[in-house]
């Protein structure tokens, strides 16, 4: 079993968001995490939130505990503060769950 989060964002600065991804990815990999799917969304037909969405992705971890450690990691938080906060206007967590490995 692995642990997966399905996330939706409104990215407002694509270049800065890409810098965030480039800088956080090595940290994510040290925790055994990875991206499963990654989409740029052109049109939302139905949403349970009023927050705008233009990006959708899954992020996978070996366990929920590992995910929590990653998001609390000081190196990750430094990258998030530098790039994520200025490049993303809205964040929606669609789902968080254990999943069977495929």
UniProtKB/TrEMBL annotation:
Domain of life: Bacteria
A UniProt-annotated Pfam family: DUF1330
DUF1330 domain boundaries: 6-92
Name of this protein: DUF1330 domain-containing protein
Naturally occurring in which organism (per UniProt): Colwellia ponticola
């Amino acid at each position: 079993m692995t642990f997966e989060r399905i996330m939706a964002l409104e990215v407002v600065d694509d270049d800065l968001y890409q810098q965030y991804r480039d800088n956080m990815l090595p940290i994510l990999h040290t925790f055994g995490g990875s991206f499963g799917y990654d989409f740029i969304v052109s049109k939302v037909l139905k949403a349970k939130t009023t927050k705008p969405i233009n990006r959708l992705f899954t992020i996978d971890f070996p366990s929920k505990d590992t995910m929590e450690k990653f998001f609390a990691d000081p190196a990750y938080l430094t990258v998030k503060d530098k790039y994520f906060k200025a490049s993303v206007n809205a964040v929606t967590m669609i789902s968080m769950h254990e999943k069977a490995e495929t």
